[in-house]
Write a structure and sequence with these properties.
The chain is mainly alpha-helical. Helices cover 53% and strands 0% of the residues. It contains four helices and no strands. The protein has helices spanning 3-47, 61-73, 84-88, 121-124. The model has no long low-confidence stretch (mean pLDDT 78).
């Protein structure tokens, strides 16, 4: 194989890999956006009591604390969500405690781009 042929094959392989990577990233962004939208909708329905969770749907208190701790450590907003007992309580004249504004820990600045590129060092660094 000549050097010119090898370079052409290499360029073709790189172009194919870049195209596959771009397509996969686009599909991942679309799935992520759809999931975020569904989650936002579900949270809104539960907060307004249009949806009633079942005991099996609840997240354990330990897991809730771990998730809130992770988000705070990473500088992400931590919403004050109702406890499971509040969600399972029958509807009364009073509503569950109002959600507080998200708190943001000032540990690291968030990346300026919103493309969810997990290869960035800021995403991978924990310390």
């Amino acid at each position: 194989m000549q050097i010119g042929d090898a370079m052409s094959q290499f360029r073709s392989d790189v172009d194919s890999a870049v195209a596959r990577g771009s397509r996969a990233a686009g599909e991942a962004r679309a799935r992520s956006a759809a999931t975020r939208g569904q989650t936002r909708e579900l949270v809104g329905r539960v907060r307004s009591r249009q949806a009633q969770p079942q005991p099996a749907d609840l997240t354990s208190p330990g897991l809730r604390r771990a998730a809130a701790s992770f988000r705070a450590d990473e500088g992400l907003p931590v919403d004050r969500l109702p406890e499971g007992t509040e969600l399972l309580a029958p509807m009364t004249a009073t509503t569950p405690s109002a959600p507080k504004a998200p708190t943001v820990a000032g540990r690291r600045p968030r990346p300026s781009d919103d493309d969810e590129d997990f290869s960035q060092e800021g995403i991978m660094f924990r310390g």
